[in-house]
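Structure ticket #2291
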Amino acid sequence: MTDPAEWVKGIGGNIAAHEAVSQVLPKETSVVCAESYGTSSWTKTAELSVILPGGSPKRYFFKCIKGPSARALVEGEYYSASTIEAVVPGLVPKPAGWGVYNDGESQVYFYLADFHDMDLSVAPEPEYLISRIAELHQRGTSPNGMFGFPVPTVLGKFERTVTWEKSWAKAFARQIEDVIRYDNERNGPWPEYDAACRQLIDVVIPRLLEALQSEGREIRPALIHGDLWENNVGIDKETGKTIVFDPGSTYAHNEMEFGTWRCSWAFHFNSPIYMRLYQRHVVPSEPVEEWHDRNRLYSIHPYLNDSAGHPGSVSRQL
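Resolution: structure written out below.
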């Protein structure tokens, strides 16, 4: 069992806070309350209220998770958010740190960031959001000119392969192979589906994505949020500015960001205005006439990820 001394004593709220969380905060910060906040399919989330060394109050967003992809989720989010914050300050809640503790039964990984009270029901103002996303894609450059990311990241609850590749077709194929494997593990074999997946990897991906880097054409690996859908975008109730959160970034073809906007669950971003505004900032890659085909291809990744995370989902049949 966990030693009681390892838990912060005398705090309010309905969530226990481990001393490991305090160690991520500025030295001599006092935790005063940890209260459940928001909803999450895979993690436990809370609002953490503290008193900083100078006596001023501050709130943090706290999430914790157990399980096979727990470390990749919190470490990946920390590095994703830190990288985004360095490129476009204020686009994501500023990350504070991540860590791990044992709750007496298993390892628990946690993540801390600045707290923002957000309205998730309002459609983001198109021009403000799109200009910031375009800035992220244009200014977020790969440290080695390759596709990938320094640490594993997670989409939903599934870790994605982000090993460095010069070929975008190979990098994306690895990510597709990830979600196909996760989907088969959760939903079982389906011969016709397996044949279609083989065709996708062997024929469709090389045909559409190798064209981006052939016959003199080039694409630059761009920093993407990685899970940019409506439930990861909110309006700060204090400032009125749009904030995105829960990133699982990678340096990718920028157009991959928008595969999820084509999915059946999109309810704001399926409006053409968002994509049209983006293409005023960043023109489609050559061959331009294949943009819609690439967008269909990129939508398969979130569909299969959704199918793996929700057994029986219709996403597998789309």
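Closing remark: The chain has a mean pLDDT of 94.
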